[in-house]
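Limitations

Structures in this collection are predictions, not experimental determinations, and the ligand pose is part of the prediction. Treat each record accordingly. The example that follows, with fe (ii) ion as the small molecule, is included so readers can see exactly what is and is not provided: the inputs are given verbatim, and the output is the predicted complex.
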Amino acid sequence: MKKDTATYTAKSFDHLRSLTGLSDAQITEHLDLYAGYVKQVNSLVQELAEMRAERGDAGKDFSLAEGTRRLAYEYDGMVLHELYFSNLKPGGDARPSDKQPLGRALAESFGSVDHWQENFQAIGGMRGIGWVILYEDPLNGRLINQWITLHQDGIPARWNPILVMDVWEHAFMRDYKASERAKYVDAFFKNIDWSAVESRLREAAVVRAA
Ligand SMILES: [Fe+2]
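Predicted complex:
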């Protein structure tokens, strides 16, 4: 039987230095954690392949069930971190106005770019650990702010992630106290790479047109 091989490599985010309000030490620690997800994905892919080769498939096999479920957690943890780091850059960009495509789309879905941001930040202040993600529904172009608790739970099957904010405590607790998440969210907004975010919206629009 053909063995699956480790196929994922941790991406480099060397541009993430001297962010506003987020220290290099904080980012380095977070990137190390991300690299751990990539390692876990590769190891689980390998282990599941070996399990198939050695024991065959049985749904009642505890290792098969746990490994299969865990793969979704590790894989989404890897991808969400890649989206998070790649929508940041030192100093960020000016927030898009409603004259630009992304700003216009936000205004259409939320009334105004300000209202979108208020809602996104309010969701960022929800109790618990998780992610705040601006999604686009490719079916109709609607933009939605969504809370995701665990990486693999509650991710809408078809929506495209446009902007991803990590609000697990490991994302900010080197720089801020647990009770200072709002300060971290403010810092996050100061470093958003809006051109990267805008390009995700364009990619989603191309898929919709196809
Ligand atoms: Fe994280």
